[in-house]
């Protein structure tokens, strides 16, 4: 790595990627570029506006803003020391890896800053000799509209926890050195030697709260106002904890109760899955639950819970609450997918009519009523 500069590419310009990149960019030696999808036009022209409870407010203008699927031609012009993958796992890792393949050099470090379990595996398989790190986000944040990021909740310190996913061919010392260099870029970042246990801790929290919030339509504070709601959350957390222990993971036995305490001590948390549910968008289910789906965080949630349900079957653990909420989420998700199948063709038809009308007006044509 060049000692004078550190070139960083954030692949996935949503809320997590924007905040992670913004904080790294505060270092004078860091040069941060971002790859965006739907918000590319706004971010490329105006950058990001950020309102956060952890760092205050700020403006972030990435050094360069690329469009996903159109960065291969930049191979010879850019060399990145770190590539941070903060794209949704449901967006399809194949296209992301195709974008990244020509950009990854032997000394490039890759970081997965995504929700769910085993999200680092595609990076490790695609780049077996590179350092692969895992970053866990412990804040609640969202993109309220393209280019505008809000963070309202600090769920747990540090804001980002960074660890080595699996050893590379370069050895643990090199991997750990790159982890530590990244963790040193912000006072709210920290390094850990046990990233797998930390991923399970977050999985337990997400599986208990995200699904319950998505089903009820309530944020964490609203949910806790209902008698019996905390008991359901604890039961979900306890089942997820037991799956982790049965899988050989060393976990704090107080984790199920801490899942409630963290939410009680935090500002109200509106999980991204609840945002999707309120907007009636299909959910991210696969990294938590185990299915391979596309589009929203609702889908990723199904993935994570599906992962737990499948893992419970593998290790022989009874998980009635997780199975129940997984079934409800799948039914809700199917309804959203069906609605989207009706709405999207209508939206395309309206767009086509508007485009035709604009063409007629711009060309000076007039329509006669017969």
Automatic annotation (TrEMBL):
<dbReference type="InterPro" id="IPR013752">
    <property type="entry name" value="KPA_reductase"/>
</dbReference>
<dbReference type="GO" id="GO:0005737">
    <property type="term" value="C:cytoplasm"/>
</dbReference>
<dbReference type="InterPro" id="IPR051402">
    <property type="entry name" value="KPR-Related"/>
</dbReference>
<dbReference type="Pfam" id="PF08546">
    <property type="entry name" value="ApbA_C"/>
</dbReference>
<dbReference type="InterPro" id="IPR013328">
    <property type="entry name" value="6PGD_dom2"/>
</dbReference>
<feature type="domain" description="Ketopantoate reductase C-terminal">
    <location>
        <begin position="195"/>
        <end position="291"/>
    </location>
</feature>
<dbReference type="InterPro" id="IPR008927">
    <property type="entry name" value="6-PGluconate_DH-like_C_sf"/>
</dbReference>
<dbReference type="InterPro" id="IPR013332">
    <property type="entry name" value="KPR_N"/>
</dbReference>
<dbReference type="Pfam" id="PF02558">
    <property type="entry name" value="ApbA"/>
</dbReference>
<protein>
    <recommendedName>
        <fullName>2-dehydropantoate 2-reductase</fullName>
    </recommendedName>
</protein>
<feature type="domain" description="Ketopantoate reductase N-terminal">
    <location>
        <begin position="8"/>
        <end position="153"/>
    </location>
</feature>
């Amino acid at each position: 790595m060049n000692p004078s500069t550190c070139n960083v590419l954030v692949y996935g310009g949503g809320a997590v990627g924007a905040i992670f990149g913004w904080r790294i960019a505060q270092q004078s030696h860091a040069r941060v570029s971002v790859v965006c999808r739907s918000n590319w036009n706004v971010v490329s022209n105006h950058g990001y506006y950020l309102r956060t409870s952890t760092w205050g407010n700020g403006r972030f203008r990435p050094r360069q803003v690329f469009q996903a699927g159109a960065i291969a031609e930049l191979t010879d012009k850019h060399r990145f020391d770190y590539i941070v993958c903060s794209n949704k796992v449901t967006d399809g890792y194949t296209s992301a890896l195709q974008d990244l393949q020509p950009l990854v050099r032997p000394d490039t470090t890759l970081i997965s800053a995504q929700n769910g379990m085993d999200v680092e595996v595609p990076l490790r398989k695609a780049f077996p000799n590179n350092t692969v790190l895992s970053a866990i986000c412990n804040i609640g944040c969202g993109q309220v509209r393209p280019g505008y990021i809000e963070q309202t909740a600090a769920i747990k310190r540090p804001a980002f926890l960074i660890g080595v996913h699996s050893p590379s061919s370069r050895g643990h010392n090199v991997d750990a050195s790159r982890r530590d260099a990244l963790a040193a870029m912000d006072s709210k970042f920290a390094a850990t030697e046990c990233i797998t246990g930390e991923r399970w801790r977050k999985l337990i929290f997400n599986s208990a709260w995200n699904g319950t919030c998505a089903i009820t339509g309530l944020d964490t504070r609203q949910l806790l106002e209902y008698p019996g709601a905390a008991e359901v959350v604890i039961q979900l957390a306890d089942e997820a904890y037991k799956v982790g222990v049965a899988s050989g993971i060393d976990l704090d036995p107080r984790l199920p109760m801490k899942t409630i305490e963290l939410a009680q001590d935090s500002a109200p948390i509106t999980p991204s899955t609840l945002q999707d549910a309120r907007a009636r968008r299909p959910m991210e289910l696969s990294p938590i639950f185990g299915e391979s789906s596309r589009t929203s965080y609702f889908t990723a949630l199904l993935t994570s819970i599906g992962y737990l349900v499948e893992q419970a079957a593998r290790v022989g653990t009874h998980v009635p609450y997780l199975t129940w909420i997984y079934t409800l989420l799948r039914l809700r998700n199917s309804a959203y997918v069906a609605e989207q199948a009706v709405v999207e063709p209508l939206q395309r038809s309206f767009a086509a009519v508007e485009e035709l009308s604009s063409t007629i007006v711009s060309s000076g044509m007039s329509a006669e009523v017969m």
